[in-house]
Amino acid sequence: MYGIKKGAKSKRLRHTHVISKQGFRFFPSDEELVVHFLYCKAAHLPCQPDIIPTLDLYHCDPWELNGKALQGDNKWYFFTRRTEHRVSADGYWTPIGDDEPVTSRNANVGLKKTLVYYMGEPPVGIKTNWIMHEYHLLDTNACTSSSNSTRRSSKKSGQQRFDANKWAICRVFDTSSGSQTSLNDEGMELSCLDEVFLSLDDYDEVSFPN
To answer: Which InterPro entries match (predicted)?
Structure first.
């Protein structure tokens, strides 16, 4: 297990990317992806932990994400610019079903769009097992109750710029690899941020194996 020295809050957050590699699973909820990561990206605020890279999704195929995107539980996470042109080198992404609301403290803060990857050229491509969850923000005021601290930081730094419609955060996985977790199992899991912050509060010293 890993702990942290008391009184080192800012320092411990910078180490969370190391902790996640040393035994912690990156298992974020939809709410955490939108409120703790995507909101900060859109508001030009530092993400804590700063571990999710920014990629041009539509310049690479999903099986090329390994080593480029952040991987957790056979799922890949990254930021990308929003676009309706979801065509890659060897195929394209097509939305399926209806967009799902992402809520935080009983308020809608974002939407989750589900897409499936097809090999070939539209509209006659071959459907694959690759799925993408693409998250984007709703009205900027919707995140107020969940992001008061980040808003205060933005005001203190003089930053008022907010790119709500510019960025998306994506989760990509291959259903044939067994990476998709059932809803029941997902409800039983602590999210990645829960695990990190619980562990930081429980121990006084940082201890890493040799």
So the answer is: NAC-dom (IPR003441), NAC_dom_sf (IPR036093)
Helix, coil or strand: residue 84: coil
Amino acid at 141: N
| Structure-token match 């994400």, residue found | 65
> Is residue 96 within 8 Å of 126, Cβ to Cβ?
no
Q: Tell me, what's the pLDDT at 207?
A: 33
pLDDT tens per residue, range 37-66:
999 999 998 877 789 999 987 788 999 999
Class of domain 29-189: mainly beta
Residue 210 reports pLDDT greater than 80 = no
Domain boundaries, the chain: 1-27+196-210, 29-189
Query: For the whole model, what pTM was predicted?
Result: 0.70
Sheet holding 70-72: strands in order across?
70-72, 75-81, 167-174, 126-137, 107-119, 91-104
